[in-house]
Amino acid sequence: MSESPQFTTPAVLDDIDRDIIARLHENARISNVELASAVGLSPSSCLARVRSLRERGIIIRYTAEIDPRALGFSLQALVSVRIRPGARHLMGQISDELRQQPEVAQLFFLGGAEDFLIHVRVRDADHVRRFVLDNLSANPAVALTETNLVFEHHTALSAGLRTPL
After folding, report:
1. Which PANTHER family does the record associate with it (predicted)?
2. What is the pLDDT of residues 133-156, one digit of tens each?
């Protein structure tokens, strides 16, 4: 797949485009016939819209959301990381290493007091402790970590996908 374009201004989308995107975000496996009916288009017009959204780089991929508990990961945590000032040149390397860890669900590079926020999925509290000790605290470039347990996690539609009521 080609690389997504770098948008300098928001893409031009009408209400039907936004409705298509929101419905695909909710269920990427919806059939074109069902999608067309839901957004009030003919199947051929709907398919053309979806193709246009892909070609313009607005839809960049389709994915499956997996319940981490089904894989034995019953605990989620957010770990914030601050890198030592003298080690800032290692941030790319640290980021690459963290993204390779199987526990890492998401990795955010931040502007602010913290440098990274890591969303991890783990089996239990001991597993998150070992992740932090082995992958962060043992790294001399890491100045500080803070771990917060996630009690509930909800995925919402991304900003701008919902059509105002």
Report:
1. LEUCINE-RESPONSIVE REGULATORY PROTEIN, POSSIBLE TRANSCRIPTIONAL REGULATORY PROTEIN (PROBABLY LRP_ASNC-FAMILY)
2. 999 999 999 999 999 999 998 877
What pLDDT is recorded for position 93? 95
- Domains of the chain plus CATH, in order, are 15-55 (1.10.10.10), 68-150 (3.30.70.920)
- Edge-to-edge strands, sheet with 116-122: 104-109, 116-122, 75-83, 142-150
C-alpha triplet 69, 73, 76: angle, nearest 5°: 105
Per-residue pLDDT of 39-70, as tens digits, reads 999 999 999 999 999 999 999 999 888 889 99
Q: How many C-beta neighbours within 10 Å does residue 7 have?
A: 10
- Gap between the terminal Cα atoms of the chain: 35
If one counts every other C-beta atom within 10 angstroms of the C-beta of residue 94, the result is: 21
For residues 109 and 97, what is the distance between their CA atoms, to the nearest angstrom?
A: 13
**Rg (the chain; Cα; Å):** 20
81: helix, coil or strand? strand
Q: What percent of the chain has pLDDT over 70?
A: 91
